């Protein structure tokens, strides 16, 4: 569920019980770009020990912030794999290849913020449908520009 601010000067609040949960991919949808008048898009991930998160990709128009609430997240940034732990913050600038997953020996709980915001909740819902076997992964290929999520290959991931 997205929450819409009446004007750009209104605060945005999303109550925990109003956030949409996508259990297939461990995402909790908080605020899409339309809720923040384009300032940001935010969601939370909660991944089981060693669970996959996102395949290698890049964003051409936005930077992506990862704040690790608890556990450990492995992140591909360019050609490096970084492990970020509880309390760590990582900002991936636009046009940098990246991916993420829970560390093999840990769960991961992280807040992800994309700025400026991109309407991404429909993208994440489609990823959940793919995970459930209701859609094909190729269904996202034609939507890469719309969601500013461009898939890449990575020899180290």
TrEMBL record:
Residues 46-113 form the Cupin type-2 domain. PANTHER family: PUTATIVE (AFU_ORTHOLOGUE AFUA_8G07350)-RELATED (PTHR36440:SF1). Signal peptide: none annotated. It comes from the Bacteria. This is Cupin domain-containing protein. InterPro entries: Cupin_2, QDO-like, RmlC-like_jellyroll, RmlC_Cupin_sf. Transmembrane segments: none annotated.
């Amino acid at each position: 569920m997205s929450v819409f601010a009446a004007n750009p000067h209104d605060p945005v609040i999303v109550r925990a019980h109003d956030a949409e949960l996508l259990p297939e991919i461990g995402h909790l949808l908080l605020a899409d770009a339309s809720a923040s008048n384009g300032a940001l898009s935010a969601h939370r991930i909660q991944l089981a020990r060693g669970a996959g998160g996102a395949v290698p990709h890049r964003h051409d128009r936005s930077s992506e912030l990862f704040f690790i609430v608890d556990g450990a997240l492995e992140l591909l940034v360019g050609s490096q794999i970084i492990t970020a732990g509880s309390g760590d913050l990582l900002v991936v600038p636009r046009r940098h290849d990246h991916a993420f997953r829970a560390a093999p020996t840990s769960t991961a709980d992280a807040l992800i913020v994309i700025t400026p915001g991109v309407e991404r909740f429909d993208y994440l819902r489609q990823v959940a449908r793919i995970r459930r076997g209701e859609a094909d992964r190729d269904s996202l290929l034609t939507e890469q520009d719309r969601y500013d999520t461009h898939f890449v290959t990575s020899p180290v991931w």
